[in-house]
Amino acid sequence: MPRFQPEPPYRHGTPAGTAIVLVNLGTPEAPTAPALRRYLKQFLSDPRVVEIPKALWWLILNGIILNIRPARSAAKYATVWTDEGSPLRVHTERQAKLLKGWLGERGHRVEVAWAMRYGQPSVAAVFDRLKAAGNRRILVVPMYPQYAASTTATVVDEAARWLLQTRNQPEMRFLRNYHDDDGYLAALAASVERHWQQVGRLGDGDRLLMSFHGLPRRSLDLGDPYFCECHKTGRLLAERLGLRDDQYQICFQSRFGKAEWLQPYTAPTLHAWGQAGVRRVDVICPGFSADCLETLEEIAQEGRDDFLAAGGQAYHYIPALNEAPDWIAALGNLVERHLGGWETRRADDPQALAASAAAARKHGATT
């Protein structure tokens, strides 16, 4: 077997193209047990996702989890599946199209694609297609606002594996995180404000719960910055919304297994609030750039049922940023900053001409 993948045909003089790839976690191809088994096997086999000795985890995964969990997960996916497919896939594809349009209006000549870290379209397949189309510069944008080894780093790992098999490598950059980006925070705050315009602001004793995906507590002890970045996002969002400390809570959802995970946990917090007489809870998931199973089923459905059953009276899930225009603009600004130094504007674009003139003046002033 050759060490490198075959190179696509190349014509000398072809302009170097630039591409942006939005990468999200992944999704099964269908809400069925066989599809979930394939997806979960790939996802849970990643050593960054589950940091347990490989031999022991292989037995647990293949002997127990993949024989029990696929059917249960398929039933959950069926409650949020749309006519177009998985919500995460639908939103990610739309975000890529809207981002391409936003960048095009700014004069950028770039290709915008999307991929799933687990599932299809795979990162490697998308890179292959972009390289064959003549793109020699690729900006990879993991769609996770807060960095974690089990999310963002897995995207970098996958890109590195592809590069190891590529003879003529493109130039590649990565967006690491955007947990404290002004545009991202402004878009989050605007989504909450729009929600409050419809249902009213929080009253006395009401709460805003910011639920982030959970990780094992061990990840924090080993130096993962995720917990701290989640708290910074939550604090900055609360400041923008003018909330007091007693009006919001940062929690972590999706606990799996018996080990301690990042706390406080979302589900027990909702249950305790309902029992304590909290009348209304609004929930937002700032760590998800697009709605998916974890937001639409676990939070919007299960969280609501837990809170109301415990005595709560009103429960609202605030949707993820999805295709909100202010979020697409924030994403575009993030991408623009990371494209710095890569000439992607049309030669006749006024902004490109102004930038070239400014560069010429600077060069003239320093020579």
From TrEMBL:
<protein>
    <recommendedName>
        <fullName>Ferrochelatase</fullName>
        <ecNumber>4.98.1.1</ecNumber>
    </recommendedName>
</protein>
<keyword id="KW-0963">Cytoplasm</keyword>
<dbReference type="Pfam" id="PF00762">
    <property type="entry name" value="Ferrochelatase"/>
</dbReference>
<dbReference type="GO" id="GO:0005737">
    <property type="term" value="C:cytoplasm"/>
</dbReference>
<dbReference type="InterPro" id="IPR019772">
    <property type="entry name" value="Ferrochelatase_AS"/>
</dbReference>
<dbReference type="InterPro" id="IPR001015">
    <property type="entry name" value="Ferrochelatase"/>
</dbReference>
<comment type="function">
    <text>Catalyzes the ferrous insertion into protoporphyrin IX.</text>
</comment>
<comment type="similarity">
    <text>Belongs to the ferrochelatase family.</text>
</comment>
<keyword id="KW-0456">Lyase</keyword>
<comment type="pathway">
    <text>Porphyrin-containing compound metabolism; protoheme biosynthesis; protoheme from protoporphyrin-IX: step 1/1.</text>
</comment>
<keyword id="KW-0627">Porphyrin biosynthesis</keyword>
<keyword id="KW-0479">Metal-binding</keyword>
<dbReference type="GO" id="GO:0006783">
    <property type="term" value="P:heme biosynthetic process"/>
</dbReference>
<dbReference type="InterPro" id="IPR033644">
    <property type="entry name" value="Ferrochelatase_C"/>
</dbReference>
<keyword id="KW-0408">Iron</keyword>
<feature type="binding site">
    <location>
        <position position="294"/>
    </location>
    <ligand>
        <name>Fe(2+)</name>
    </ligand>
</feature>
<keyword id="KW-0350">Heme biosynthesis</keyword>
<dbReference type="GO" id="GO:0004325">
    <property type="term" value="F:ferrochelatase activity"/>
</dbReference>
<feature type="binding site">
    <location>
        <position position="213"/>
    </location>
    <ligand>
        <name>Fe(2+)</name>
    </ligand>
</feature>
<dbReference type="InterPro" id="IPR033659">
    <property type="entry name" value="Ferrochelatase_N"/>
</dbReference>
<dbReference type="GO" id="GO:0046872">
    <property type="term" value="F:metal ion binding"/>
</dbReference>
